[in-house]
Specification:
single chain; about 290 residues; mainly alpha; Alpha-lytic protease prodomain-like; Alpha-Beta Plaits; 2 domains; 8 helices; about 70% helix; elongated
């Protein structure tokens, strides 16, 4: 995130220089998206640090959900940037278009796009490997910047080659629509996380090992639940034992099942909690 913030500030400066030199709507769209990007990266930079803080007296489950909030803010800012780009491009179509120094502006924008391409791919790979929605969302945001830069270069080259300057704001609108789609997607995935949506793959792996474990030991289980708090999964389920089994033996088996689920999740920091109950006297919650 330190790298992302530093690169974002550098790209912002370069793109605004390109816009001042050319007056291009499509380069303005690229520069406007970069303003939003820097703000979003700063928030994500803060969110990564807060999410790493351990649980405290006021946040017993830690601070991981700040990642969903950060991604939602980033998605909302992307949507705002897309709307600003569309409004500006339409205004240019109505009031008139004047372009200059297209060659230099194109080179600056293309260079910025290549730098962001490398950064975006690095962030997405890192976010997925570390199961960090904040970092992955930031990488996706950087990639929208790449597509905007690509659109800017394409628009400028077409306008330059054909002399049809109206292509510049038209292409800006098309790429703004793509940016808007990406922003809506980020907001949606963040809302799903805040609503404790399960992870189907992790749920399947957990249930597979639980089924095998309970069959092996003649046990049953129910009320299985899995939710994600940032990149940390929280799992709980009711494990049912024969009435004659001692509390110690039941506890030992429950602990063994928790360790197996953690291994299946592939995450040592996953939180797995079992509720022990006798088979013939189920919980009042059932």
């Amino acid at each position: 995130m330190n790298i992302s913030l530093a690169v974002g500030v550098g790209m912002l400066a370069a793109k605004w220089v390109a816009y001042v030199l050319t007056g291009s709507s499509v380069i303005f769209s690229d520069a406007a998206e970069s303003v939003v990007h820097v703000i979003a990266v700063w928030f994500a930079w803060y969110a990564v640090r807060l999410a790493a803080e351990p649980p405290d007296d006021e946040h017993h489950y830690g601070h991981q959900k700040i990642g969903f909030i950060s991604a939602a803010v980033e998605g909302a800012l992307i949507c705002i940037a897309a709307i600003v780009i569309i409004v500006t491009a339409v205004d240019r179509l109505v009031t008139g278009i004047e372009l200059q120094r297209l060659g230099l502006g194109t080179l600056i924008t293309a260079g910025a796009g290549l730098v962001n391409l490398a950064l975006g791919q690095y962030l997405i790979r890192t976010g997925r490997r570390e199961r960090s929605l904040v970092v992955e969302a930031n990488g996706k945001h950087v990639m929208t910047d790449v597509w905007t830069s690509l659109g800017a270069v394409a628009g400028l080259l077409l306008a330059w080659a054909t002399g049809i300057y109206a292509l510049d704001p038209i292409i800006a609108v098309l790429f703004a629509a793509n940016i808007l789609r990406e922003g809506v997607g980020l907001v949606y995935s963040s809302a799903q996380g805040l609503m404790d949506k399960t992870d189907p793959d992790l749920e399947r792996r957990s249930i597979e090992v639980l089924n095998a474990f309970t069959q092996q030991h003649g046990l049953t289980y129910h009320r299985f639940r899995l939710r994600m708090a940032g990149q940390i999964p929280h799992v709980d389920y009711h494990l049912q034992f024969p009435d004659h089994m001692s509390v110690k033996d039941a506890h030992d088996l429950a602990t063994a099942s928790e360790h197996l689920v953690q291994q299946a999740l592939g995450l040592t920091d996953a939180e797995v909690i079992t509720h022990l109950e006798p088979r013939t006297h189920p919980s009042e919650h059932d």
